[in-house]
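User: Please look over both lines:
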Amino acid sequence: MIVRTLELPDNLTELVAAIFDQAQLSLANHRKNCVALYKLHHQAAAVTQTGNNRAVVRRVGERKFIDLFIGMVNRVLVVKKGPATADRVVRFIGSYVKFINEKAAAEKEKALKKSTSSISARLEDDVDDTIASRFVVRLLNWLLEGFLAKNKIVRYRCVSIVEDTYNLLKEGLVDRICDKEVFIRAHAATALSKLAGSEDPDEVHPGEKTILEALVDVVSYDPAPEVRRAALVSIPLLPSTMDAALSRTRDTDALTRKLVYSNVLPTKLGHPRQLTIAQRELVIKDGLGDREPSVRVAAGKLVTSWFDLVLAETNKTEDFTWDGDDGGMMKGLLRFLALFDVIGPGEAVAVDAVLAIFVTRSNIPDVFVFPELYWKELTPESAVLARVFLEHCLSEKNEARLEAASLPVVTAFAFLLQDSYNALLNVLQDMENSAFLNLGEPEAEEEAEKREEELAKKEVILGELLRMSLKLDFMDEIGRRKVFTVVKDMIAHPELPPGLINPCLDVLKEILPTERELIRVVVEIIVDLREDDHDINDVENSLLGDPDMTQTTITKDKSSRRTKSRKEMSPDERVEADIIDMRCLLLCIGMLERVDGSFEDNSTLEGILTDLIIPSVKRKELVMREKGLISLGLCCLIAKNMALSSFQLFLGQVQNAPEELKIRVLQVIFDVLIMYDQEFFSRSDDIAQKITGFLVQTLESDDSAPIQAILCVGLSKLMLAGIIKDPKIFVSVFDLFIHLRENLDNDQETITPLQFGLLLVDWTNPQKSAEMLKTELRSQSSHVEVAADILGVLYDSERSDKYLKRTISIDEELKVMCQLLGHLYLAPGLDDRSIHKLNLLLNHHKEQSPFSDDSVGKVFDKFYSKFTQIFEKEIQRIDPGKYLDGEFQELYHFIGVDPPEERSDQEKTPALTSRSHSLVPSDAENTTEVPGSSADDSGEGARQDLPYSILSNTTIVKAQKNKALQKSSSEVGIPSVNEDSEEEMSEFVTPVGPAATPKRKGVKRIQTPGSATQTSPLIRKKTRMNSPRKRRSKISITADESEDDVTPTKAT
C-alpha cells in the first residue's frame, strides 16, 4: 500500500513559469521572486511517498519541482548570447542558488540553538543531505552534462550559469566563515578549501580577500579550536599559507598542535627540504619541547619519518671516505643533521631531533662504529653526532654499547683536541694573511666570508670535542695531563673564539682537583695576558702532581696590574690593552660562574678584583663597564660584605645607565637580593620597604619592555620565595599593565587583564616554589598577601575615579579581581592570624562596600563560600578579642567597623613586626638598621666606608644620588659597610613625608597621636600614580590642631 503525504498544487507548473516570466523582465524583482519560488520549493519538498514496507521514502514532490526548474533552465540554454532577458534569467538562477543556501544555513543555526548536544556531537551527526544540497547537486550535474553538448550555445550558457553559481557560492561561503556558530564556520572553511584551487587571484576585486587569504585568517585568528582545525586540515600547503599552518605549532589547543605533526605535515609535505632551515628548526623545537606528551610523541614520529626520507635518498654524492655501520645509518644521520644549522643556533634543535630518533628507534645506536678515519674527517655534523651518541649512551648507562663503538681513549682524544686546535689556529692565521694581502681587492670580501664560515666550522668541531672531553674517564694520568696542557694552551691564546672559553673552563674544572686550583690557573693566565707574556709557565706538574700545593705558593711578584699605566700608552697600545682586558674579563666571568666557595677562601681573587674588575667598572665604555659590573656582581655572590657595600653602586647604575647595561645590572641586583635576603629584608623593615619601593618605582617609570619584563619576573621570584611580603606590588603591577594596555596603538594587541593577572598569580604560586621552600608554605604563603591586597582594592570606592578615561570600567576590573581570588592557593594549615584577617575583609565587604554589578557579587560570594568551607573550624575557634593590636586596629578602622571589646581575662597578642601579617607595610618605624658588616681590615690598603643608602620609593634626590655614586666610583677598592652607621646613612636617605588617606565609604582617616606617620592599611593607594610615566610630586602633611584631620600640601 502506497501512502502519500500532502498534495502538490495542481497549478505548480504555471506558478513556476510565472515566476521565471517575471524574473526575465527586471532585476529589481529577483529577491521577491526568490522568496516566492522558495515557498513553492519548500511546499513541494513536504510531499513524499512511502512504500509498502515503510522503509523507503520517495521525495516525489521535490523531484517534481526540480524537474520543473531544470525545464525552465533548458529554455534559456538555447538562447544566443545577447538578449537581456536570457541574461536576467541566468542571474536569477544564480540568485536562487545563493538564496536557498542562506536559508539552509539559517535553519541549521535554529536547530543548533534548540539542540542540547555538544558541538562535536553535532558535527558528527550532521549530514549534508538537505533541500539546498540536493537541489544544487542535481542542478550542477545537469549543467555539467551540458559541457559536452554539440551546440556551442548550450555549452556557453551552461558555463555561464555555473560561473555565476560558483561566484555566488564563494561569496556565501566567505560570509559564513564569519558566522557566529562554530559548527557553520567549520563547514564553511572546509567547503571554501575545495574552491581554493580553482580561484584566479587576478580576477579578485581590489580590497577583496582571496579564498586562501580568508582561510589563512581562519587558521590564525578564529577563536574556536574546532574551526581552526577544520581550516588547518583543509588548507593546501603553499608558500603563501606555510607560515600560517606552521604557526599552529604554538596553538593554545593541544589537539590542534598535535594535528600539525600527525596529519598536516606528514600528509601534505613531500620532503622536509620544502621548508626553509628556520621553518624546520621551528617545527622541531616547538614539537619536541611541547608541554603535552601526546604532541611530543607526534613530533618524534614526524622527525623519524623525515629521517626515513633522507635515509632512502640514494642519488646523493657522499663526502665521506670512511665506512661505518653496514646499514648506512650513521651517514644517513649525518645527512639528516645537514637539514639544520648546526653551526649556528640550530645545533640544540638538531641534537633534540637526533635524540628523538634514538628514542623512537632504539636499535639505531647499536650499529654505531667509529673508525679511525671518522675522526680525521670531522665535520660539524659528524662531531655533533659523536657527542650526542656518547651522551645518550651515558644517560642510559650502556657501557657495552660504548665499547662496541670503538671510541678513542683519553690520550688519543687529547691528540684529537690538539689537531683540531691547530686547524683552528691555521684558519685564524690564514684570515690575517688574507686580510693583509688582499686589502682593497674586489674578491677580498667574498674570500673573507668563506674563511669566516670555515672558522665557524672549526669552532663547532673543537667545541663538540671539548664537550665530549667532559664525559671521558680521566683515570688515565698521561691522558689527563695531555688534555690539561692542550686546554690550558687554548684558553691562554688571546685570539681563541669567545664561544670556546666556557667549554675550556668546564674541562679544566673537571680535570683539576679543587676550585682553588681552577682559580689559580685562570688567574695565572690573566696575569700573563696582561703582561703580554705568551710563554706561560708550565705549572701543570705542580697542579696535577702535588695535591698539597696551595695558592700561597704563587710568587708574590706576580700581579695582574700592568707595568705601564694607560696614560703612558699610545693609542694603538690602548686598543690592544682593551682587547686583552675584554678577554680577561670574559675569563674572569666564566671562572666566577663556576666557583661555589667564598671569596675569602680564594685570596688570589683579590688581585683580579683590584687590578681588573674595579678599573673596568670605572670605564666610560659601556662594553667594558658591563663586563666589569657582571664580574663584580659574581664576586658579590661569594662575598657578603662586598655585596652589602656595593649594592648602592648597582642602584646608581640603574638610574643612569642605558638600556643594555641596565638589563645586566638589574639581573645582578635580583641575584644579590635573593642570595642575601636575610641581610637586605629581615634586619630592617624600613630598608626592605625602600628597596621594594625603588624596584616598583623603576617598573612604573621605565618605558623599556625588556626592563619591565626583568623587573616583573624578578619581583615575582622574590614574592614566590617569601622574601618580599609587600602586598602593594601585586596591584601596582596590575595597574601598570592596565595603563600600558590603554596606551596601545590601534594596530597593537595584548592579552586581557584577566590573563595578565593569572600570569602574576602563577608566578607567585607557592606550589611552584623550589623544594627548599616547601616546608615554609604554611607559614609564609605569598598568596595570602595577594589575597589581602586584592580584598583591599574591593573596599576602595574611590578607585572608580581613576577609570573615567579608561576603556575598562570599574565593574570589569572588580570582576577580574574577584576571579583572581578564586585562583589563589589557600590550603588548610594557615596561621589563625592570617585566617582572621582575610575573614574580616570578606565578612564585612557586603555591608560596607557592596558591588553595583550582581555578576561581580556572584564571583565574590563563590570565593567567600570556598574560603569558609576550607577554614570553617578555624573561623569558629578564633577569638576576635585576641587580635586587637595596632595592625588589626587599623584594619577595623579601614573597613569601617568597630573593633570588639578587649577581654580582660585574656592576654592580648602582641603585634608582629613581620610584614607578612600586614595588609601593606607600615611606616611607623623611625629607626633604620643598616644591613651590613664591619669592614674587613685584613686586606691590603685601607678601604673607605661608603654609607649604605637605598633610594626612597617616592622621592629621588638627584644631587644626593650623584654624590653617592661619585664617591663610590672614586674608590680604588670595594668599600664596606658598618652596621652601626645609621647617622651617616641618614645623609643620603630622604625622609618620606606621610600621605593623607582619601575618604572612602565607611572608612575613617586616622592618624597615630603624636606622629605624622600615615597608618592606613592602604597606604599603597597614595604610592600608586594616576599616570606611571609622570614624576610624582612630593607631598608633605600640615597637621591641624585636631589629631583626626590632616591637610595635604605640595612641597615647595
Residues 116-127, 533-557, 772-780, 904-1052 have pLDDT under 50 and may be disordered. The longest helix spans residues 84-114.
